[in-house]
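Database export, one record per block. Field names are fixed; values are copied verbatim from the stored entry.
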Amino acid sequence: MSTSAIHITTRPQYLADRSLPNEQHYVFAYTITIENKGESAVTLLSRRWLITDANGKAIEVEGSGVIGEQPNIAPGAEFTYTSGVSLETPIGVMEGSYTMRHTDGSEFQAPIAPFRLALPNIIN
C-alpha cells in the first residue's frame, strides 16, 4: 500500500476564549481526519509536527500516537481527533507526518500537508 492510500484532512480553528492577545498567547484547535483508502488496516504509531509562528520560531513535537491513542484504522474507515496548540503570534503554520504500520509489520510515513493557523479575517 502506498502512502497515498492514507488521506489526511485538517481543520484549524482559533479559540478566542482561551487566547490572550495582549500577552502574545494565541490558542488554536485543529481537527484531523485520517482516512484509510487502502486495502489493509493500518495503525498510527507516532506523530511528528513542525510548528512555526510568524516570527519564524519553530518547534518540533514528536510523540507516541495521538491524544493518548494508537488507533487502528480499518480499510475504508477513518479516525478523527481534535488537539490544540498555542503560539506567540496570531499566524502560524503546522506540518508533519504520522508513522503508520501495515498489518504485515512494515512501517511508512504519512505526510501531513502544511496548514495555516490564523485569526479569522487577519488574512484576506
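Remark 1: The longest strand covers residues 42-53.
Remark 2: Residues 3-102 form a domain with the Immunoglobulin-like fold (CATH 2.60.40.1470).
End of record.
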